[in-house]
Amino acid sequence: MGAQRRKQEENAAGQGTDPGENGRSATIRDVAVRAGVSAATVSRVLADNYPVAPKTRQRVLRAVQELNFVVNTHARALAGVRTETVAFVLHDVRGPSFTEAAYGVEREANRRGRLCLICSTEGDQERELAFVKLMREQRASAVILIGGVRDDEQYRARYTEIAHSLHAAGSRLVLCGRPPLGPDVPATVVEYDNEGGAYAITTHLLANGHRRILYLGGALTHTTSQARLAGYHRALDDFGVEPDPSLIEHGEFTRNSGYERTRARLAKSGARPFTAIFAETDMVAAGALTALDEGGVAVPGEISLVGYDDIELAGDLRPRLTTVHVPYEEMGRTAVRLALDLKEGRSRAADQHVVLGTHVVVRQSVGRRRPG
Amino acid sequence: MGAQRRKQEENAAGQGTDPGENGRSATIRDVAVRAGVSAATVSRVLADNYPVAPKTRQRVLRAVQELNFVVNTHARALAGVRTETVAFVLHDVRGPSFTEAAYGVEREANRRGRLCLICSTEGDQERELAFVKLMREQRASAVILIGGVRDDEQYRARYTEIAHSLHAAGSRLVLCGRPPLGPDVPATVVEYDNEGGAYAITTHLLANGHRRILYLGGALTHTTSQARLAGYHRALDDFGVEPDPSLIEHGEFTRNSGYERTRARLAKSGARPFTAIFAETDMVAAGALTALDEGGVAVPGEISLVGYDDIELAGDLRPRLTTVHVPYEEMGRTAVRLALDLKEGRSRAADQHVVLGTHVVVRQSVGRRRPG
DNA sequence: TTGAAAGCGCTAACAC
DNA sequence: GTGTTAGCGCTTTCAA
């Protein structure tokens, strides 16, 4: 698929003579010829970084207009001029929490004169890799990945390699909410206190007298889920409550999963073996709430409910959802800040691992319960 | 800022000798030297499109590993190999409706083997232009813009030019939910029946006996708002109801704007001059509902409420929000489909304008009212 | 099976 | 002020 052959094919397939539609687009050379000057002069006019006679400039600009000339970034980049970009990769653009982080990335990147490119992978690792590859090849300033993963040998090996290859390309890998890869891997990590948040909110439930708390979790292998579940267990332990495995469920981080799982539980037995529900994300909590609502169960009267993430939706639910606030936007901003500061020599490699705090936001979905 | 000078500066600023950190990254030439072959051979190994002796291949791959070599897309693109991408531009990644469209774009682009790049502009036209420029220069297959605009001469002139320059660069401009630019402009337009949806839902309110409907709109100059307001007026007209200008409000498309405006109205007078609220987006409706809730106003008992967009949130509100469904995801998919089909010669220019339908989704936020 | 060489489109020293 | 020229890093003929 060489340049030449490709262009010929395009021409052969062409339907019209409209320049640009099929024929090759105008180059700086074409403009030069039309304006009766050299390519260098055109380049100067375009870059506007060098004195050019007004009349010449006029002619060049006219030619540019007439030919509908568009510079080729690739050629320009090759010649040394960079358009700095920051890339952000998430699973799903529709997910409310990660887009909050995307927003933070975007703002900070912009504040520092970079363009921000976002890519959604639908959780497909191949796609993630393809995008990282593209960004690496385009020499993006930083590539920021967000979203829990399955933390195994394969993960570490794979991302360690990615970190190195990005580094070799003059870019930087940033992991948001993912486990660090090791001390010698050139990657920036921005985590948040996942376990601590889960601990705190479980404690909140326990302090309100709840002892049997249904846990609506994500996939068992998912690092985010593991950390949250760990916090839940630690809190139980601190209160001397024996954990009941039958109260732990694993599923997806979707509204629907929360809905279905809650419905199934509600249908199961007359005497409910739990007085509160800890949904691992607000989305799951929203689904659970709908199921509770449909089942005629009062919240927090009969059952208390808490979520995690503190997305905007939490305040729209009725009752308003008590949840754990995660500083997603700040994570995004921090990710960009750390990576760029490092590149600009304003930060040291040792400071490339940050853990942001989380905290409980008490709203209306938790009620007091006399334990026993 | 030439390549040479830049590199020297980078070296000067360097802290370590780690290759890649500051020094220039390895090129195909470096790999060739290390492997004791020519650059052409390395290229062949990498592209894997040509027979190469197994042993040579081994040596090359090893050298690639050792040097952490990463091809330079720019050079590659310049030499004729394209990574096809589709670009999507929206105002805010956090906005629920447009990200639905982004999802559609992403899926369809992916189905057709393209990578999808998303850019959020925070409503900044300059940023939008910068991104479009970048994508044009990178020769993206299509550049898709979504979000209402101020429809004036400047808009038309500006985007007509963009359409032409994208076309000249072999790309294609797609406008989602924005007014067409004219018959001779090379742009694809995917609209939805904005006015029709507003008409239908207003009719729904009117049919339920509501005559005084508070309208919580967006900016007056915004095309989306204009169309929705037009639908509202047409419905009133069809029912022989005199529109009351004091019931029309303009503001922003945010939760908070809906909240504040509703609160102000509620505070204003004891005798409320309206029995229903038409919020121009579900987001605004969510805010209005909170205000109503706080004011102790029963919905739909005392006041009915409808929104527009049918985002997921609509089903989470209590009462569940009656609203207008807009096929955002389909818009995204359609945008990609039309643009790529055209490029592939599987569609004609005449079919590059599509209007998708909208419809009312009846849930629980509208009550009957005895008119008078 | 491999290498040499030309060229993709642009930029920036260096001459004039 | 403007043109000439030498690359940037890669791919792909063409020749060996």
Automatic annotation (TrEMBL), chains A, B:
<keyword id="KW-0804">Transcription</keyword>
<dbReference type="InterPro" id="IPR010982">
    <property type="entry name" value="Lambda_DNA-bd_dom_sf"/>
</dbReference>
<keyword id="KW-0238">DNA-binding</keyword>
<feature type="compositionally biased region" description="Basic and acidic residues">
    <location>
        <begin position="1"/>
        <end position="10"/>
    </location>
</feature>
<feature type="domain" description="HTH lacI-type">
    <location>
        <begin position="26"/>
        <end position="80"/>
    </location>
</feature>
<dbReference type="InterPro" id="IPR028082">
    <property type="entry name" value="Peripla_BP_I"/>
</dbReference>
<protein>
    <submittedName>
        <fullName>LacI family transcriptional regulator</fullName>
    </submittedName>
</protein>
<keyword id="KW-0805">Transcription regulation</keyword>
<feature type="region of interest" description="Disordered">
    <location>
        <begin position="1"/>
        <end position="25"/>
    </location>
</feature>
<dbReference type="Pfam" id="PF13377">
    <property type="entry name" value="Peripla_BP_3"/>
</dbReference>
<dbReference type="Pfam" id="PF00356">
    <property type="entry name" value="LacI"/>
</dbReference>
<dbReference type="InterPro" id="IPR046335">
    <property type="entry name" value="LacI/GalR-like_sensor"/>
</dbReference>
<dbReference type="InterPro" id="IPR000843">
    <property type="entry name" value="HTH_LacI"/>
</dbReference>
